[in-house]
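Complex 375.
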Amino acid sequence: MKKFKCLCVVGTRPNFIKIAPILRAIDKSLYVKLLHTGQHYDNFMDRIFFRELSIKKPDFNLGVGSGSHSYQLAKITLGVERILKKYKPHIVIVVGDVNSTLASALVAKRMNIPIAHVESGLRSFDHSMPEETNRILTDHISQLLFTTEKSANQNLKNEGIKLNRIYFVGNIMIDSLFYHLNKKITPQKIIQKLFPKKKFELVKNNYVLLTLHRPQNVDKKEQLKFILNEIKKISDKFKIKILFPIHPRTKRNIKRFNLQNILNNKRIICLSPIGYIDTINLIYNSKFILTDSGGMQEEAATLKKPCVTLRQSTERPITIKYGSNFVVGSNSSKLNKAVNTIMSNARIRYGRIPLWDGKTAERIVKTIMRYLKEA
Ligand code: UD1
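Predicted structure with uridine-diphosphate-N-acetylglucosamine bound:
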């Protein structure tokens, strides 16, 4: 039987979480090579994910690193072209919505290699986000569009994409979540292991996990200052600890804008970025999360944890319908209303989200195999 060759592309933290279950599910009838663009490269943004998620060492690493969007797109495009010419895969699998996703898809398209896009069809309708452009362009040039929720199918249909390219398979992030979550570990243990020198107590359901990295939130002084001040007010008002693992982009800007003093508060605990397994276990044990991440909205909804989203919109509306996602933007009164509701222990209804069942990778690989055999 003919053996097909497949190339999987990753570049950033969320990509690693999405590719791991697919690599596990790819059966022996498919040769697979992994290409890492190197968009993320630090131990805490990159290597720890490979170790924790048992992802094989990339077969190719472009070592692109940081830079402007144009720099990243250009470097990735040139590097991916070189690899595709050499490896000549029958299909390229790209995940998510980062620069690495779009750049590698563009090259594959130009070389007439079919593209499978995992996490297709999500739309924030906020065109100022680079991810929105990355999603739209990648979807329009891919052959197999794997969606996480029904609204994504609708978005794709509205954009004129033919139904026979769209496959509703569920959420690959939740495959990783179910595979790695450890419900027995206490938050105190996690923190002690990570930061043996830090002396503070962390009690289940009695802290908030905060993450911030979107350029809209962290690249402008006034906006970042506003958010940090609001966080400080919440921790003072409710006397609740806020755990804040700080993304490198955010850390650099806090320093650049001289905002460290706002975080000088005994209840705000600033940490280096933390790995995947600790993050999901800390979400599971928290009272609620405050975030501008996409994936964490999904993890919170699945773990039945309230999530306050510090963005104007979400491209994952199902987390509002079935989870308890409060999308508050930079509106102080909306933010406070959401936090008051959560802290008053108001009853929140959660639902089981269709196909977020830990079996998405199997469905994706089956579909890809069928496509290759029929092509
Ligand atoms: C990127 C993605 C975003 C995703 C996020 C996850 C795009 C357009 N953005 O944003 O969608 O949610 O990753 O984290 O692709 N840095 C380090 N070490 C690293 C990586 C980055 O210090 O390993 C620093 C650099 O100073 C860099 C900054 O972080 O300038 C931002 O990194 P970059 O890859 O440009 O974008 P992210 O903000 O991480």
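The mean pLDDT is 96.
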